[in-house]
Design goal:
The protein is an alpha/beta fold. It is built from seven helices and six strands.
């Protein structure tokens, strides 16, 4: 398949993007999301370089900005793409779903940034704060309550991990509060639920507390 967008900034630029991006082990669903956003074609299968070359210039440029340049945008969308990929890297061979709606025990439908499924069951949920002020205590309490409600519901029986990511950092009291809430849980196998926080610094997400 020929990249129809090549004339815009030439083979050399597109080729340089492909050469850089093919080393990034980008998950399939990320390529699908970017292709959709940029109205690009995408080879369904094949080597990563062939799949990248099937994408248009806009898609390649966006992928390069997000993953190679680690650039930021006003809406925080680039940070969300990086967070999706980060969560995916933690759960190999699992299905990763974005903006997933999961009902909780209370009957409320919760929208989570990322949900991870293994054999059709939810095993992890994750949320990311892409822009704004550092995550505060109120936000971590809200996150805990959402995850706890999902865990207690019919869809949360296998849920074992909850990750709160932030590109804006965390306030100290927010981390302490989430840790205290996590420690207050009943420690048996059935109710096991690990809360993690991950901070995006120096172009990489790293777990700050478990």
């Amino acid at each position: 398949m020929v990249n129809k967008g090549f004339p815009k900034f030439g083979m050399s630029q597109a080729g340089a993007y492909v050469a850089a991006l093919k080393n990034y082990n980008l998950p399939d669903f990320i390529l699908v999301l970017i292709a959709k956003e940029c109205k690009s074609e995408l080879l369904e299968r094949g080597r990563i370089d062939d799949r990248l070359q099937s994408m248009n210039d806009d898609a390649l440029e966006l992928l390069h900005k997000v993953f190679v340049g680690c650039e930021e945008d006003i809406a925080g969308k680039y940070a969300q793409y990086r967070f999706y990929a980060y969560v995916s890297s933690m759960y190999h061979k699992c299905e990763v779903l974005v903006n997933e709606i999961i009902p909780g025990a209370s009957g409320t439908n919760h929208k989570v940034s990322v949900a991870v499924k293994n054999n059709g069951m939810y095993i992890a949920v994750a949320h990311n704060k892409a822009i704004g002020n550092p995550v505060n205590k109120k936000e971590t309490i809200r996150f805990y309550e959402i995850v706890d409600d999902i865990k207690k519901g019919d869809h949360g029986t296998m849920l074992s991990d909850a990750i709160y990511g932030s590109s804006a950092g965390f306030r100290g009291d927010a981390l302490v509060e989430l840790e205290n809430l996590s420690k207050s849980r009943i420690r048996d196998t059935e109710n096991k639920l690990d809360f993690k926080t991950a901070n995006f610094e120096n172009n990489i997400y790293s777990v700050t507390k478990c």
